[in-house]
Design a protein that fits this description.
With 182 residues, the protein is α+β, with helices and mostly antiparallel strands. It contains 3 helices and 10 strands, in the order H-E-E-E-E-E-E-E-H-E-E-H-E. Strand 2 and strand 3 form a beta hairpin. The protein is globular, with a radius of gyration of 23 Å. The protein starts with a helix and ends with a strand.
Length: 182
């Protein structure tokens, strides 16, 4: 007859072996969220989404926002947020929250404005303000957030308010970069 301690060890060893065999399939990670854009080709942002585009406000600020598509967002995602900034200088080009669709079509900042809450960019305007590199080609990062719930922000919020509001509500993020050629 087996000693009780040996029996316990054998049971634990059996559980461990079964766990190691099953774990890879049970614990497989979900595919990582990605963001893509038809407005970025070969790492370059199309001219129409920045200073060479024709859609501008009264001050000459480009206003046609770049299209974005989110793939493989977590299943519990309820809303999306977007943050676009210049990597060369501290400049916010677009911040928006509470958008339900995983697709931001071309010019969503204007055409879908009623379906999201947009903050002020560094130009001091609400919504999208496209790339306008003053000196040379700049690199821009667009970061999309998958949110588990609605964010409590009002139209015209700042980037610092945005950072605080999405903290604790973000399920995943994905980024895409593009250069805007001067």
């Amino acid at each position: 007859m087996l000693n009780k301690n040996i029996l316990r060890m054998l049971v634990l060893l059996a559980i461990l072996v079964v766990g190691l065999c099953v774990a890879p399939s049970v614990m497989a990670a979900d595919p990582k969220m990605k963001v893509t854009s038809d407005g970025i080709k070969n790492g370059k942002i199309a001219p129409e989404y920045g200073m060479y585009g024709s859609a501008k406000d009264k001050n000459g600020i480009p206003t046609k926002s770049i299209p974005l598509t989110v793939k493989n967002a977590p299943k519990k995602t309820k809303f999306y947020a977007v943050y676009m900034y210049d990597n060369n200088v501290p400049w916010v080009h677009w911040i928006a929250v509470n958008y339900k669709s995983k697709t931001f079509p071309k010019d969503a900042s204007k055409k879908k404005a009623s379906l999201m809450v947009q903050g002020k960019n560094s130009f001091g305007i609400l919504g999208y303000g496209g790339p306008t590199p003053p000196d040379k080609t700049h690199t821009y990062t667009i970061k999309v957030y998958a949110l588990k719930s609605k964010v409590d922000l009002s139209k015209g919020f700042s980037y610092s308010q945005f950072k605080k509001a999405v903290k604790g509500k973000t399920l995943a993020t994905a980024t895409i970069k593009g250069k805007y050629i001067k």
